[in-house]
Amino acid sequence: MTSNQTWNQHIVKKENKSLVLETIKDGYPISRAEIANQTGLNKGTVSSLVNELIEEQLIFESGPGESSGGRRPVMLLFNQVTGYAIGIDVGVNYILGVLTDLQGEIFTERLVKYHDLPYEDILEKIMSMIDELMASAPASPYGIVGIGIGVPGVVNNEGKILLAPNLGWTNIDLKTQIEDKYGVPVIIENEANAGAYGEKKLGAGRNYENIIYVSVGIGIGVGLILNGRLYKGVNGFAGELGHMTIVDGGAKCRCGNEGCWELYASEQALVDNAKHLGLKLSLSDELTLEDLNELACKGDASAIKLFDQIGYYLGIGINNIINIFNPEQVIIGNRLASSEVWVNKGLSKSLEGRTLWFNQQNFHVTFSNLSTHSSALGAAVFAIEAFFENIQNVTLSV
């Protein structure tokens, strides 16, 4: 047998094994016969691959299932606590970290807030959070399988952060620094891409294949799921739509452009406008999004009008995206998802007045049901999927 044939057999087996594992993950408890039916693989191949997955402690057998006429089949379950992943969402003024099992269920989470820190201080906070999350992980066969980190900036296909304007970062190699310290695989991704993936896998986007995720925090990021897959473009830069111009000759952005979408439709824009009007809850309070939600709940007309305005500008950008990509769903996530009830009126009015009628068919605008956790969870899912792709090269830790 030639080395080429051996290599091809290895690739086929790896793909089949991934298919079997994915089938079990998505549909357990499930029998070997049902796996064969769903995948189209013959029963001998399924049985062999299942035995390998049991040895690797990724799945296990449970009691017999219901019979369809013969012997009751032995059912297989996914062992979601055979390892854990860490997902980190680095915001402009916060870091949110989660420790999840291999099904994306949160086991522990941590949140720290800060203001205008240099990169070195933020790196120290990221590492401190990773230390805490690692220490909280129960003993498991594979331990920490990987770390995913979402950042609000331009990330290339090698995981290097080329530009994060709202953080003041340029050409940052966070991936290498984290990998060198912890010795586990690290994935760095744009936070909106991570959020889009989190929503697709675990949130509001599970039933759709063409999704635009709009992350609205201090800035605005956009993640694209096209035909069920994360779309990143040739170099990984797709989705930088928070910096598309919506106001000709508008305000100057930190990215160097003028009239950027995030200057008019972000959390920062909302808070800045509220400060300009002198809105506050008390004399000593630093105004926050939560304060404005509370003011709106109390019927404050100025706060409600500001949310209408943010919704209106949000709709302008979303309308542009709809006309370009014709998606099934737009998901609004991150911090502004908490203001759905106040943003919706202006958003709906803006979209109804602009969106071409044929683009409104089979189209849904929803707010994230993962809220502020979309990016951290998506980052964890990236780490989990990378672990499964490389399972042949991973050894049990206990």
Features:
about 400 residues, alpha/beta, Arc Repressor Mutant, subunit A, Nucleotidyltransferase, domain 5, five-stranded mixed beta sheet, about 20% strand
Blueprint of the fold:
Layout: H1 3-27, E1 30-31, H2 32-39, H3 43-55, E2 59-64, E3 74-78, E4 84-90, E5 94-101, E6 106-113, H4 119-136, E7 144-151, E8 154-155, E9 161-164, E10 169-172, H5 174-182, E11 186-190, H6 191-202, E12 211-216, E13 220-226, E14 229-231, H7 262-265, H8 267-277, H9 289-297, H10 301-325, E15 329-333, H11 340-354, E16 364-367, H12 374-389
Parallel strand pairs: 4-7, 7-11, 12-15, 15-16
Antiparallel strand pairs: 1-3, 2-3, 4-5, 5-6, 8-9, 9-10, 12-13, 13-14
Helix pairs in contact: 1-3, 2-3, 6-12, 8-10, 9-10, 10-11
Walk me through what this model shows.
α8 packs antiparallel against α10. The chain is α/β, with parallel strands linked by helices. 41% of the residues lie in helices and 21% in strands. It has 3 domains: 3-78, Arc Repressor Mutant, subunit A (Orthogonal Bundle); 84-196 and 376-393, 2-Layer Sandwich (Nucleotidyltransferase, domain 5), CATH 3.30.420; 206-369, Nucleotidyltransferase, domain 5. The two termini are 36 Å apart. The model has no long low-confidence stretch (mean pLDDT 91). A 5-stranded mixed beta sheet has the order 6-5-4-7-11, with helices on both faces. The protein has helices at residues 3-27, 32-39, 43-55, 119-136, 174-182, 191-202, 262-265, 267-277, 289-297, 301-325, 340-354, 374-389; strands at residues 30-31, 59-64, 74-78, 84-90, 94-101, 106-113, 144-151, 154-155, 161-164, 169-172, 186-190, 211-216, 220-226, 229-231, 329-333, 364-367. It contains 12 helices and 16 strands.
